[in-house]
Amino acid sequence: MKVTVVGYGNVGAAMVKQLSAAGHAVTVTGRQPNGAAQIAELHGAKHAPMNSAATHAEIVVLAVPFDNAAQALAALGSLDGKIVIDVSNPLTADYMGLTIGHTTSAGEEIAKLTKAPVVKAFNTLFAQVLDGGATFPSQAVPVFVASDDPAAKESVVTLIKSMGFDTIDTGGLKNARYLEAVAGLNIYLGYGAGLGTQIAPAWLKRA
């Protein structure tokens, strides 16, 4: 697939690494061209300015903080015919809480800013887990997926599985409210409780 990753921080860089390793045609973009170029060169991807980076993309990974999402989407221009993957969480300044959650979510708010279907995914995983790849010693790392668009969700599930990750369908985009809370708990466990960043939430089903 042709994938544009917006953002080159820890999460964005990890996404570029894994998508490129899976054989996808990846373009990196962001506010600072030099930052995007460095990550692109490191992982064998392309880089482009914000206003043209998504022109030929099928999927756009929005790997920027929630507070920067509106600005990033505006800079990308029209995303008609594309799919947006939202990996963000609406975190407080100390990363130990969420700024919204009971009546909306980052995923739902981002969906209001674009005509493209939005799929919530990857937000429950630390960047270090993404960077390390899809497999823990006991099982494939699960990615929770939520969207109101079945076709978009199916495309994203295919993308995720191509990267080696497992997927768990969590229903409509409204359920991003729960996924973002799970991410908040995972952040607490990793940092607040001192368990480190090589942890990830999973869903078990008895056979």
TrEMBL record:
Superkingdom of origin organism: Bacteria
Gene3D superfamilies: NAD(P)-binding Rossmann-like Domain
InterPro entries: NAD(P)-bd_dom_sf, P5C_Rdtase_cat_N, STEAP_metalloreductase
SUPFAM superfamilies: NAD(P)-binding Rossmann-fold domains (SSF51735)
Oxidoreductase is among the record's keywords: yes
Single GO term (MF): oxidoreductase activity
Domain Pyrroline-5-carboxylate reductase catalytic N-terminal: 2-90
Keywords: Oxidoreductase
Record has RNA-binding as a keyword: no
Name under which the protein is recorded: NADPH-dependent F420 reductase
The species this protein was found in: Caballeronia mineralivorans PML1(12)
